[in-house]
Fold this sequence. Notes:
Layout: H1 3-10, E1 13-18, H2 24-32, E2 37-41, H3 44-52, E3 59-68, E4 72-73, H4 75-82, E5 89-97, E6 101-104, E7 112-115, H5 117-122, H6 124-130, E8 135-138, H7 142-150, E9 155-159, H8 161-166, E10 170-173, E11 183-190, E12 200-207, H9 213-223, E13 228-235, E14 243-249, H10 256-265, E15 269-278, E16 284-285
Parallel strand pairs: 1-2, 1-3, 5-16, 7-8, 7-9
Antiparallel strand pairs: 3-4, 3-11, 5-11, 6-9, 6-10, 12-14, 12-15, 13-14
Amino acid sequence: MNTEEKEKKLLKKRIGFLGPEATFSHLVVKKRFPKDLHQSLDSIEAIIDFVKEHTEDEERIGLIPIENSTGGMILESVDLLLEEDFHLYIQEELSLNVELALIGRKGEEIKEIFSHPTPLFYCRKWLKARFPLAKLIKTSSTSEAAQIVSQTPGSAALSTRLASEIYKLDILEFPVLEGSLNLTQFFVLGRSPYLGDTAETTLVFSVKDEPGSLCSFLEPFRDEKLNIKRIVSRPIPGKLNTYLFLFSIQAGKESLRLENALRKAQRYSLWLKSLGSYPVRETFNV
């Protein structure tokens, strides 16, 4: 194999996503990385392990959901990002405007409706009005819901149009709750920092268990007029009243204001680590 062939081989990229096929994660991967290899994985932790695994002939990156405008933060993702031995970098933030489809078989009476807990919660009033007698059943993903419905007469799934194609189901209604915003945000993870222009930075930090410690940490960002996009706290296992924070600021690594704020804030932190600065891409639509 000559040098040129080796370089081409090294450029091969494989993206791990939360499967199975036809999930919203899969849709985002297909839209953002249409020409690359896609790897369906069964958990967020498996995606992180997949990216960490070294391979000589391909670049590995992973897509994990981080926040939903209805269901809030994805706590499994947050907890894994907060782990001390987490050594990956956020390379991009992606968003998907989720438009759900009700899929099943035309002409059947619907007695059971399957879906992931977030869509079931988001659409609960619509479901109660349209199918007051139907039993709502939670699944691990919208794609699994479609798979179950393909084998279960008298049922329907809140899922995707792609799932209806894969599992040979009819689209009974699309979009469900037309006109309402249901946005899911994702992080793209890699083994190295993003090298281009950036728009946002995410940090992990802890502060002392004393009055005003969190306020003191945050004040430098206010003073530098930096907008905090998200902040979420999670308890440290085995340590009472002690927390780690995941913290995203709308400023990239090129920002002098961010540099100044971090220098001042670091005085008030017990532990501070950057998970990377990265671009925020335009929102995809289903």
